[in-house]
C-alpha cells in the first residue's frame, strides 16, 4: 500500500466504526492528563467521523473527570486497536468541548435513542450509586440532557502501525487545522 492508501484506509476504518457497533475501532481509548499531571485513559464510544476535516465525535457526561481534565488541557491522544487487521491507530490532537447548552450537543442529543439518553440520568460518573429518582420520563430526559456533552476531537497526527508476521509496518501522518494532510512518511516500527 502507498502512504495515500494507508491514510485513506485508516480513516475509512474509523468512519465505518462510527456506524458499526461490532467494529473494533468503535471503542477507543481517550487519554488526557489530570490536574496532577498524571495520564488518564478511558474507553469511549466513537459516534461520528468527518474524514475531510479529520474530526472524531465522542459523547460524554459533563460531570466526568475527563471533561474537567480536557477543559484544563485540551491536548489528548486517542488510541484504537483492531485485532483482525492487527492494526493500531494512535491519533494526537486537540479536543473542543460542547456543553449541554450548545447547538452541537442539542443536535447530537436529538439523534440519541432513549436507551442511550438514560445513561446520562444518574448521578455523576464515579459517585456511589444511590436510589434511582422517582420521576417521569420527560423530566428524566431533561435531567439527562443537562449533563450531556459532545467532545469534538481534531486530529493533528495519525500514527498507523500494522503488526504482521514479518515486516511490521508503520506510517505517520500530519494534518493542518482544516484537515488537509501536511506530511506523511514511513517510519521504523
Architecture overview:
By secondary structure, this protein is α+β, with helices and mostly antiparallel strands. The chain contains five helices and eight strands. It has helices spanning 3-19, 65-72, 103-110, 114-117, 137-145; strands at 27-33, 39-50, 55-61, 75-82, 87-98, 148-162, 169-175, 181-186. A six-stranded antiparallel barrel has the order 1-2-3-6-5-4. The protein is elongated, with a radius of gyration of 18 Å. It starts with a helix and ends with a strand. The model has no long low-confidence stretch (mean pLDDT 93). InterPro entries: Pyridox_Oxase, Pyridox_Oxase_Alr4036_FMN-bd, Split_barrel_FMN-bd. This is Pyridoxamine 5'-phosphate oxidase. One of its GO terms (molecular function) is oxidoreductase activity.
Helix and strand arrangement:
Layout (H helix, E strand, L loop, with lengths): L2 H17 L7 E7 L5 E12 L4 E7 L3 H8 L2 E8 L4 E12 L4 H8 L3 H4 L19 H9 L2 E15 L6 E7 L5 E6 L3
Amino acid at each position: 500500500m502507498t502512504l495515500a492508501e494507508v491514510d485513506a484506509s485508516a480513516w475509512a476504518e474509523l468512519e465505518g466504526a462510527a456506524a458499526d457497533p461490532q467494529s473494533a475501532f468503535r471503542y477507543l481509548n481517550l487519554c488526557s492528563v489530570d490536574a496532577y499531571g498524571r495520564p488518564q485513559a478511558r474507553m469511549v464510544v466513537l459516534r461520528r467521523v468527518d474524514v475531510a476535516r479529520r474530526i472524531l465525535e465522542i459523547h460524554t457526561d459533563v460531570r466526568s473527570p475527563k471533561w474537567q481534565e480536557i477543559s484544563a488541557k485540551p491536548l489528548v491522544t486517542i488510541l484504537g486497536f483492531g485485532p483482525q487487521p492487527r492494526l493500531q491507530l494512535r491519533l494526537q490532537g486537540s479536543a473542543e468541548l460542547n456543553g449541554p447548552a450548545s447547538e452541537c450537543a442539542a443536535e447530537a442529543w436529538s439523534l440519541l435513542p432513549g436507551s442511550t439518553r438514560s445513561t446520562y440520568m444518574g448521578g455523576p460518573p464515579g459517585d456511589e450509586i444511590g436510589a434511582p429518582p422517582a420521576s417521569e420520563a420527560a423530566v428524566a430526559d431533561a435531567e439527562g440532557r443537562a449533563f450531556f456533552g459532545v467532545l469534538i476531537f481534531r486530529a493533528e497526527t495519525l500514527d498507523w502501525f500494522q503488526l504482521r508476521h514479518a515486516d511490521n509496518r508503520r506510517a505517520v501522518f500530519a494534518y493542518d487545522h482544516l484537515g488537509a494532510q501536511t506530511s506523511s512518511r514511513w517510519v521504523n516500527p
